[in-house]
Every structure is written in C-alpha cells, then in structure tokens.
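Lab meeting, item 3. Inverse folding demo.
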C-alpha cells in the first residue's frame, strides 16, 4: 500500500486551502482503511470463526434466560433485549485485541514505514481505528442473521440500519484505538494479551449488555455509567429494537462514543511513534 500523497499535500499545510486539506485527510484515511480491508480479504476464514461466540450467547445463554424470566426487560423478550448487547460484545471482543496487529507490524518494520510517510499520525491512528469497524460490521451481519433465525423481531428500517452502522463504526474505532494505546505501552504480545483479557470481562459484565443497570448494585451502576460499552449497547437497543428506548437519548450515546474516540485518537497519536522503538 502506498501512503504517499501529492507534493502539494506533503508541503501543503501552508499553501493548501481548507478544502484541499480535507480532501487529503479523506484520501489518506481511505488508504489506511483500504490497506486493512485487503488484509481481511486475504483471510476470510476469520469471519467464519467469529460466528461461534455470538451463536453460543444467543442460543444457549439467551435461550436459558428467556425461559426463566429472571431478568426484567420491559416489553421485550429477553432474546430481543440480549441481541444488541451481544452485538456490542462482539464489537468489543474484536476491537480490543486489534493492537496485536500493531505489535506484529512493529516486528516486521511496517510501523517505521508508516511513520516516515507524509501521512499525519492522526490520520494513521484514525484510519486504523476506522478500519476495525469492517470486522465489527461483518459481525453485525452475523448477529442480525442469527437473531432473525431465532425469531427475534428487529427494526430493519433503512434509518435504523444506518444508525446501527454508525454506532458500530464509532464503537469499533473507540475500542481498537484503546487497544493500540495499550500496544504502544506494553509492546509485546504476551503482555498485551494479558491486559486485553483483563479488560474485556469487566467492560462486558459492568455494562448493560446482558442485564439492565437497574438490577446492579449502586457502586456497579456508577462504573457502568463510566463504561463506553454501556453507551454502545444503549444506542444499539434504541436502533435495533422496534420502538426502542434507552437509558439516554440516542444523540447522547453517539456523542459519548464520538468524543471518547476522538480523545483516544489524540492520545495514541502522541504514543504511536513509541511503537517503532
């Protein structure tokens, strides 16, 4: 993949107009996303393996708790309530281990090539974060098809589906950028895997993915409200369920995801050169 841009773009933060700068930013970001897409296309079997986990959660966990009616889910069946949570969980589990790719690229010298290219670090990091959404979107298709096969009624309107795409893109970018920050600090796969496994379970269980916040202990509710996965689940429930309602308005959920992602990208833009050391 070539990350080079025109000579004006390389020199051009001074002479280029605002529209040219935006165009350069978009082209460079698309180049990064395209690079990641080609990596995924070379190993499509990865997508098949990712069917197993959401299937187990929806069929076994969802099936059991749907029969005992132990968790209050309002007007929705437990399987309906669970489906957006399992989609959010899938996005989290895929994205949180995205930093392993950065560690491997560091070992192969690819990170160094990225850093000596004219592409700004913010674009490098943001493009990598956005590219993780491709795996998240493929997972969304798997979860939706599984849910439909199980008889779950979903909101499949065009606006609802577009909103789901936006929420998944933001959620994938958020957790993959967090993953890259961890990779920039620890730099080895062994340490990264340990921290990644340490983070995923607390983030998942201290959210509203499989039960509502209302049945949590008070101290855990505070933790859940500081957990970005809660806002991803909340947005997906509003968008995916018929007449969906959430803890917060949809714009609040999306705004939290956007600004947390932006902050993480800025942090990783400062840390990214450490990957080459």
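The presenter then showed the designed sequence:
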């Amino acid at each position: 993949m070539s990350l080079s841009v025109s000579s004006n773009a390389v020199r051009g933060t001074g002479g280029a107009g605002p529209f040219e700068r935006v165009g350069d930013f978009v082209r460079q970001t698309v180049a990064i996303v395209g690079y990641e897409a080609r990596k995924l296309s070379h190993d499509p079997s990865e997508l098949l393996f990712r069917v197993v986990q959401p299937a187990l959660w929806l069929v076994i966990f969802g099936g059991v708790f749907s029969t005992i009616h132990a968790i209050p889910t309002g007007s929705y069946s437990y399987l309906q309530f669970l489906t957006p949570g399992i989609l959010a969980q899938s996005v989290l589990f895929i994205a949180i281990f995205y930093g392993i790719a950065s560690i491997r690229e560091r070992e192969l010298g690819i990170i160094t090539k990225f850093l000596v290219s004219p592409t700004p670090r913010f674009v490098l990091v943001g493009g990598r974060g956005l590219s993780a959404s491709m795996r998240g979107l493929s997972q969304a298709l798997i979860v939706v098809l599984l849910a439909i096969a199980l008889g779950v009624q979903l909101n499949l309107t065009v606006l609802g589906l577009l909103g789901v795409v936006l929420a998944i893109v933001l959620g994938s970018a958020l957790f993959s950028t967090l993953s890259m920050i961890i990779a920039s600090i620890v730099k080895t796969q062994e340490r990264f895997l340990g921290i990644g496994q340490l983070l995923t379970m607390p983030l998942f269980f201290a959210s509203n993915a499989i039960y509502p916040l209302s049945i949590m202990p008070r101290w855990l509710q505070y933790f859940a409200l500081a957990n970005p996965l809660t806002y991803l689940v909340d947005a997906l429930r509003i968008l995916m369920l018929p007449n969906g309602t959430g803890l917060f308005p949809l714009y609040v959920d999306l705004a939290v995801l956007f600004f947390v992602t932006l902050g993480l990208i800025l942090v990783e833009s400062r840390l990214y050169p450490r990957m080459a050391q």
